[in-house]
Write a structure and sequence with these properties.
4-stranded antiparallel beta sheet; 410 residues; Chloramphenicol Acetyltransferase; alpha+beta; 7-stranded mixed beta sheet; elongated; Dihydrolipoamide Transferase
Length: 410
């Protein structure tokens, strides 16, 4: 018997432990070289672990186990030959007569473990769309549900016609007087998020200052040039690129807001890497857009679109998660009107965007209805003075309310 040990590989400098979130191949099944056998979840990304040899897979670790780098995950018995019919036959030793052990009937059309089983990326999409994998026809190898299958899937008609209210009421009625409880282990990413948020709260002198911005001119700009912008660049001119560019200009004018504390030193950055908060099924991620100060609006929009797509498909690389000198989070997409965002350490400041609401405001002695948004800037008072934080936020407000100054860089 020849055994190959599968151990947790080195993933990144800062990652010392991962969680085995899901087995992709059943214990005892035959696995081919480079075929993904399981999925690891680190504090930054979800990764597939490919087989280092072909043979029979033997579990060592279990799902939800926390494993250190170098820990044994599984073993592969390379003396086991590939079954004649991989969709149904069990893995058998190389010296075994397959004709004696395999059933004589044709079983090529029978389902196996892969049949109806979604890939990690497909599983995330199905969870987001609240679609039962059993209702999706897989077109991948052995009937596995691929990412494309998940994207093409639609909820059943009866489910689509059910109003949220009636569904919620049915659930509430079913749960009346229930005393049931569920205990579920937190995901690796959720545990890391929790640890970092507590650390940011306890180890920084965090304060939040507020302002509001009139988005009348921004909305008029987008309405006037949106079609031409899309025609030329293939992406919409959104709010995020405008806010990111406004922050980049203000950050260059107020370098303290773009700096970080390192022990008893301050590190200033001559570039602006803005981390964009993206909500995913497994938690919040904040991949940075590098050198925002040097990018065009369309380049910022394309990069944000790319990062958001990768984040929701669980395909962000560790390099794409590194860095960032400032963060923007948009709670307004969920309806938040005002919040106090928590710092994304080691950064010293974070801007919170919120919902746009039509509100009456006084302009030149007249009351007018304008699209208004509250802005919140949380900052580390150890490095950023109150006057600096207020001046920074006012500058962002001025650039957004007069977008021509933003376009001209003045």
């Amino acid at each position: 018997m020849s055994i190959v040990e599968m151990k947790v590989p080195t993933i990144g400098e800062s990652i010392t432990e991962v969680t085995l979130s899901q087995w992709l191949i059943k214990d005892g099944d035959y696995v081919s070289l480079d075929e993904p056998i399981c999925e690891f979840e680190s504090d930054k990304a979800t990764l597939e672990f490919p087989a280092e040899a072909s043979g029979k897979l033997i579990y060592v670790a279990a799902e939800d186990d926390d494993l250190e780098i170098g820990a044994l995950v599984a073993k592969i018995d390379t003396s086991v030959a590939k079954p004649a019919n991989t969709s149904t036959a069990e893995a058998v030793p190389a010296n075994t007569n397959v004709s004696e052990t395999a059933p004589s009937k044709d079983t090529s059309s029978e389902p196996n473990y892969a049949t109806g089983h979604p890939s990690p990326a497909a599983a995330k999409i199905l969870r987001e769309q609240n679609i039962d994998p059993a209702s999706v026809q897989g077109t991948g190898k052995d009937g596995r549900i691929t990412k494309e299958d998940a994207k093409a899937a639609k909820p059943e008609k009866s489910q689509a016609l059910t109003s949220p209210t009636s569904t919620e009421n049915a659930s509430i009625s079913h749960a009346l007087f229930s005393r049931d409880e569920r205990r579920q282990k937190m995901s690796r990413m959720r545990r890391t998020i929790a640890t970092r948020l507590v650390s940011a709260k306890n180890s920084t002198a965090m304060l939040t200052t507020f302002n509001e911005v009139d988005l009348t001119n921004i909305m008029a700009l987008r309405k006037q040039y949106q079609e031409k912008f899309v025609a030329k660049y293939g992406v919409k001119l959104g709010f995020m690129s405008l806010f990111a560019k406004a922050c980049a200009m203000a950050l260059q004018e107020k370098p303290d807001v773009n700096a970080i504390i390192d022990s008893d030193h301050v590190i200033y950055h001559d570039y602006v890497d803005i981390s964009i908060a993206i909500s995913t099924p497994t938690g919040l991620v904040v991949p940075p857009v590098h050198n925002v100060e040097s990018l065009g609006f369309h380049e910022v929009e394309l990069k944000i679109k790319e990062l958001a797509s990768k984040a929701r498909d669980g395909k962000l690389t560790l390099d794409e998660m590194k860095g960032g000198t400032f963060t923007i989070t948009n709670g307004g997409v969920f309806g938040s009107m005002m919040s106090t965002p928590i710092l994304n350490q080691p950064q010293s400041a974070i801007l919170g965007m919120h919902a746009i609401q039509q509100r009456p405001v006084a302009i030149d002695g007249h009351v007018m209805i304008r699209p208004m948004m509250y802005l919140a800037l949380s900052y580390d008072h150890r490095i950023i003075d109150g006057s600096t934080s207020v001046t920074f936020l006012v500058r962002v407000k001025e650039l957004l309310e007069d977008p021509m100054t933003l376009m001209m860089g003045i």
